[in-house]
Amino acid sequence: MTHDAISPPESGRLGLSGKLLGLTVAFVMLSEVLIYVPSIANFRLNFIDDQINRARTAALALDAAPEGAVEEALARRLLQSVGAKALALKTGEARRLLAVSDIPHEVDITIDRREDTGASAVADALDTLLNGRGRLARVVAEVPNQADFIEIVVDETELRQAMLTFSGTVLMLSALISILTAALVYVALDRIIVRPVRRLTATMVAFAAAPEDASRIVTVSGRADEIGVAEFELARMQTEIHDQLQQKSRLAALGLAVSKINHDLRNLLASAQLMSDRLGTVADPTVQKLAPKLIATLDRAIAFCQSTLSYGRAQERPPARRRTALADVVEDVRAALGLEPNGPIGFTAAVERGLTLDADPEQMFRILLNLGRNAVQAFESRGAPDPDRDHIRISGRREGSVAVIEVSDTGPGLPRKAREHMFEPFQGSTRTGGSGLGLAIAAELVRAHGGAIALVDGAIGATFRITVPDRPIDLQAHARRRASA
Question: Any idea where the Histidine kinase domain is (predicted)?
Fold first, then answer.
């Protein structure tokens, strides 16, 4: 997926703050509903129990009077105070109708308060709200120390109206509580979460517009929660991206400068090569001894100039592998470094006799030369070289089908920063002004051979181990070559 295929979100939609406010109100209202349902059921039961208590009091007055001694008007007032249409007591086998205001029609439902109605209280309350208007209910309850039970017939309309009034009050209080709670939660979350997230979003957008501007990197607030972790990780990521862009810019500028130097340097080396060819005609023995090495060095320098930009511009050419005597390559490296037997820097070549490896000799020379030059520069960084202290050793041995080469020195070693970015260009250098390309190029050439390069831990100074495996033998191709020979 390309960058152009990713479209930004549409503006004008409900933002994070709006979603937070809406969800807060919704959840608070939901909690109020969950509180309201048992509350309305409890209100209904309390209302009925209050009617029963008033009915018990009225029953005491009616039951204590001689039969027929209570006037009808008084009986109606007692029933009206209870809110009932009829009142009866059952004692033993006898069932007495104490008072009646109107002859009730058929009773629609029975409410027995002698039973535990906790499980069905919510369903009964909802039924009263939906169907209680004009409905007659028979209420049965115990009468301690007076009779077996008491019965009253009531119209649920009054109960339903009281429940509706209670519901309206609860709804109004719930709305006020919801608004207040939502406002408090919204303000708290807006300050704790929404604003920091909005700030992170604005920082990411601003940094994406100009990642080369270091002032647009997010400022870490120092918070210890998840927002603080997100700020820290975002700042670290933006810093890495900024540094990489700076590095790529420096690499591009370096490539342009080197390309200009490369053009003129090749012409100068070509002229030097023409003049060195004339040295071959001089009869002096010393000249005859040094001229081939000088010509070979100039040829190698010209080849290096032609491939100087290969690291930044493209990959190195594939290695032209053949059986190569490691001792000859090590000797060329010693001569290129200018290390003489009695020089200020000691040199030891400890290569197994007759050791050959399946490698490109020019690339192997560049690998060992870069490592050796780094060692020489490490010696020079701490003052004048001392032959009793400064020493370079290149060893080689074979382990089965793998050639193992070690380049070690007695220098100060690599600091922690250089170890962390050892084979990265412009990162692994320990020398002021160094580019760090030596180890990066060496690692790339070793990998092109299918090998590996690593720093050996625990060694004095710095020791790099290089392993170069032999190529698998193509038996059919080998047989064809032998047949053609």
Answer: 260-472
Which residue, 333, 313, 302, is CA-closest to 396? 333
Q: Give the strand pairing for 84-91 and 147-155.
A: antiparallel
Split at pLDDT 50, 70, 90, the class of 393 is very high
Q: Cα–Cα distance between 59 and 90 in angstroms, integer?
A: 11
Q: What would the two tokens of residue 238 be? A: 């933006």
Rg (CA), the chain: 49
- This prediction has a pTM of 0.45
Whether the pLDDT of residue 385 is over 70: the answer is yes
Pairing of strands 84-91, 94-100: antiparallel
Look up tokens 């003049």; give the residue. Answer: 275
306 touches 266 (CB < 8 A):
yes
Element (H, E) at 276: helix 226-279
Q: Would you say 255 and 312 are in contact if contact means Cβ atoms under 8 Å apart?
A: yes
Which residues on neighbouring strands pair with residue 348, listed in sequence order?
393
Contacts of 3 (CB under 8 A, 6+ apart): none
| Whether the Cβ atoms of residue 73 and residue 53 lie closer than 8 Å to each other | no
Read off the pLDDT band of 314 (50, 70, 90). very low
Measured between alpha carbons, how far is residue 87 from residues 50, 100, 214, 297 in Å? 15, 6, 89, 127
DSSP string spanning 200-256? HHHHHHHHHH-TT-GGGSPPP---SSHHHHHHHHHHHHHHHHHHHHHHHHHHHHHHH
Measured distance CA(6)–CA(108) in Å, rounded: 67
Q: Give the integer Cα–Cα distance in Å for 478 and 354.
A: 23
User: For residue 182, which of 30, 364, 74, 28 has the smallest C-alpha distance?
Assistant: 28
Distance CA 47, CA 60 (A): 20
Strand partners, 407: 394, 464
Question: Residues 432-465: pLDDT tens digits?
Answer: 444 567 788 889 899 999 999 999 887 788 899 9
Where do the domains of the chain lie, and which CATH numbers do they carry? 16-179 (no CATH), 316-484 (3.30.565.10)
What DSSP designation does 97 have? Answer: E
| Mean pLDDT, range 210-236, rounded to an integer | 84
* Phi, psi (rounded to 5 degrees) for 383: 115, -170
Give, in order, the Cα–Cα distances in Å from 150 to each of 113, 141, 142, 182, 335. Answer: 10, 5, 6, 49, 122
Which residues face 155 on adjacent strands? 136
Per DSSP, the residues of 113-166 read TTS--TTTHHHHHHHHHHH-TT-EEEEEEEETTTEEEEEEEEEHHHHHHHHHHH
Backbone angles phi, psi at 356, to 5 degrees: -125, 155
Strand partners, 99: 87
CA distance linking residue 466 with residue 453, whole number of Å: 5
Does residue 401 contact residue 357 with C-beta atoms inside 8 Å? Answer: no
